[in-house]
Amino acid sequence: MAAVKTANIPGEKFITAATSNTTAAAVANLAAAVNTISTGNTATTAVAAATATKESLLGTMTHQVSFNPNDNTQICAIGNGIFKLFRYSEGTLKPMFFQKFEAKNFLCHCWTADERIVIGTEDSRILVCEATGELKFDFAFFNQMPLRPCFALVSFNKGFVAAGGGGSLVIFERSGGSSGGDLAPDSNATPHSLSSQQNNSESAAGKEGFKRVREYNVQDESLKILNMAVSPNEDAVVCTLDNNQIYTVALGTADLKGDESKLEIFSQPFHHGQITGMDTCIRKPLIVTCSGDKSVRVWNYMDSTSELVKYFAEDAFSVAIHPSGLYILVGFSDKLRLMNLLIDDIRPFREFTIRGCRECRFSNGGQYFAAVHGNTIQIYSTWRFENVGNLKGHNGKVRSIHWSPDDSKIVTAGMDGAIYDWILKDMGNSGSTGNSGGANTAGAGGGGGGTGSVKREGESILKSCSYTCAVASPDGKSIYAVGSDKTLKEIVDSQIVKELDSDHVLSQVVISHSGRMMFVGTRKQQTYERTSAGTIRSMKFPLNNELAEFQEHQCHSSAITKLRVSYDDTHLFSASDDGCVYVFKIADREGRGLKKERDVMFADEILVTKSDLEEKNQTMNELKTRVEELKMENEYQLRLKDMNFNEKIKEVTEKFMQEIEALKITSSVLRTDKEKEEVRHEEEMVEERERHSRELLDLETSHNGKLMTEYDKFQELQTKTAELQLQWERQMRDMQVAKEKALAELTSHFEAKLKDKQAEIEKLQEEMKQQFKEFEETTHETEEDADSEILELKHRYERRLKEEREIGLRLKGENGIMRKKFNTLQAEIDAHKAEIAKMYAEEKKLHSIIKSLEKDIAGLKKEIQERDETIQDKEKRIYDLKKKNQELEKFKFVLDYKIKELKRQIEPREQDIQGMTQQIKEMDVELEHYHKANSDLELAIADLKLKLKAAEKQVTKERCRVKGCCTTIRKFKVDLNECVQFIQEPKIMKSQVKKLYQKYCKEVVKDEEALDLDIQQEYARHREYLEKSVNSLRQKVSKDQGVHRSENVQIMQENAVLIKEINQLRRDLRSVRSKEKAAELALRHIASFAGGDSTKDETISLPEL
Predict the structure, then answer these.
(1) pLDDT digits 0-9 by tens, 707-734
(2) Residue 745 main-chain phi, psi, to 5 deg
(3) Residues 192-205 pLDDT 10s
(4) Could you tell me if residue 653 is inside a domain?
(5) Were 175 and a residue from 30, 211, 314, 1086 both cysteine, which residue would form a disulfide, CB within 3.0 to 4.6 Å?
(6) Does 952 fall in a domain?
């Protein structure tokens, strides 16, 4: 995006700007010693006009300016105590004057479709003004306490949308109370009286022309809506909040309920605090970020969506994601936590006692991770959670950790100006804690038995520079670092071999995995504000010379905090203190993407806990069971409905057959009646024709008389018109004579006056010539006398030289006076000439007046003719209205009779409705009784089920005991067979029998002692009783269910019939009432017509009864 044109306008900064809809004009509001409004033409980039709104006193500032969308010469400006309208005319902005009203802190405004101004205030009021500045009315934006300021307004065709504090958004639409959607207040309302109507704002809004249609809220009431915009087709509103979130709401949604009144997030939620950490993984297209808003977010950069969002109670300072994309490491203010990325949650499963970890990174293989603890870097095993090494050597805060591609080295950089290169090959060997490297070895102390020594391979210390980031090249030979000294350093073998100067501080550096590109993030200091802007510079790698070529991309409004490159080198990610994450596609100068060595196949696996999976499986089984139950229930309901509908079809068929027979009989009766009526109508028609012929003759005679009368009136009016014409002609002749006489008198008067003035001019000129001659002669004589006297009396008049000089000065003064007199006379001559020219102009003016009077005469003649035609039309109109009045009086009598008849029909219907209502209440009481009986039966069934389960358990226990006895018998048989084999040897036989006795008979004796015969008998009796009880209760329950089912079906059918009758009665009642209202309305129209002006043309549509 490039700037097409630039205009320089004096001022500190822009507060707001607006452009017109129709022409290339723009208006801007600047903050300076005086709040200034400037307007200009975008085609010429020149300031056309500027004006001051108000002195910038404490708390006084202009907030918004805008053009009238239908008139680009009118501008509105609002602010703290400021509401002004300007008109652009002749190169200047002229203020428009109107009646002032109470000054408030006006925060926003918008123009409606009918050229009105809607203004939102800090005290939760909304004002509506005309385009002239006149206040029409005001009402509340938010009625509840505490009051919420109105920060944003936007209009659409049906009304406007207001939003502000507390995350509230209210849609107002024009109410249909006033004609054409006009917002007209009460006739007695004034700007002062309107302020007293604030307590009744809702009713006033509806009455005056606006109604509150819907209200939406954000879940967090501490948020504020700052800006809004309506889509071009006006079906949705998009709004931005002070926490950098974008929400949307549909304008056309009607009848919202419950949670639907909440604003919906647009796209996905964003960070609303500075981003403190960012990382990307290998196996999935994910990046993870943490922010000062106490949230950790996982983003999918392939489809630009937010995968997971989790808020925590503590601030998150750093974050790293495992190369597999299944785990993340987050550094909080109290601990370092290792977490699982589940399908819908981020769940911690291991904690480490590292407070305020500002930097952490997983190794490229994922088997280790490094975390900063103060000025020490601790290395842990990802799978064993053991501290396998501690890197000590920094004296300040460590700001950067970088693993080499093969995880054999770590490069660290700190605020102390030190960069260390660590070798990790010997890490993890237990017991190797010796100091083998002298000063270049850091011992891995504390943390368990899995620690070992880590060798420091190289170091570079520069105290004057605080490093913020350091990375190693893909081959591990070079280190590139950036810091506070505005240089990019290349370090090889602990020596700085190259430094590239920059005009801004470099904050981050990253190298692509292919080793072909380098990206650097900057913190650019703004000149006009004490803020910094973040830019990204892409450089070709490796660096060739001292002045490396780069391309700069302006993206962030604050310093860049993190830079990462995807594993396949196709995307670049940047994060900043402004809370934004940018994703760039990496391409060459021709726009082609970098060539991939191989296609990266991203993994689809996700982590799911066993408990979640079991819970979901259980939910699925429950839902399946519920579906089966619903299927059975629906099938039963369908069968029941089929039965009901079949019965209804039979009833309706029989009913219609009876009605058809009745209609056939009625048709035959009506046919005979029709024939009789036709004969009667023919006789009546003959009588009516004779009567109409008689009435026609009477009307012709009466109309002939009226025509004669009207003709006489016309003759009289014609004579009067002729007399008026003669009188008018006499007046015109008199006026013509008077005009000519006055013109002649004026001409003679001014000619005489002109001659006098010319004579005076000639006389004055002669006097002036005579005086000039006398002056010259006097001067000449005086000079001659002076010369002679000077020559003769030089020695005598030397003492009087001073006096003579004074006399000379006096004479010069007199000469000046004479010249002034001459100039005065010349001016009088010029004035007389101007007066003569004025006389000629007055003469022309009189001629134009004469012509206009002649035109007026012709117009008056035409008006007389038009009035004659109007008189004839009015007389015809009077006759038609009198005739219509007679017809309406006849119809009034008919309507009175029908109204009385309808009232008589309504009374019995109302009595029937009351009876039906009482019957419904009784049936409701009976239904409640049945429901209570059903609940008691269900409790009894549940109790019996519990008893049945207990009996089943006892049976199972007995079966197990019997099974054990059978097993013992089988074993005894086997042992007895073995014993029988020694029947020929008595001693062995005796010992075997003893063994059998000790093995089986002692247990039998113990069992027999343990058993109680009475208890067994009692248990058997109790079991038999329970079985009989269960069987009888099952039969009873099945019988009761059948009875209740039949009773419920019968009650439902009766209820359906009663509801149908009630609905029919209600429809009849509504139709009767509507007819009654229509009849009363017609009577009021008739009464108003009879008492009104007879010259009005009114058409009344009477209802059909």
Answers:
(1) 888 888 888 888 888 888 888 888 888 8
(2) -60, -45
(3) 333 333 444 444 44
(4) no
(5) 211
(6) no
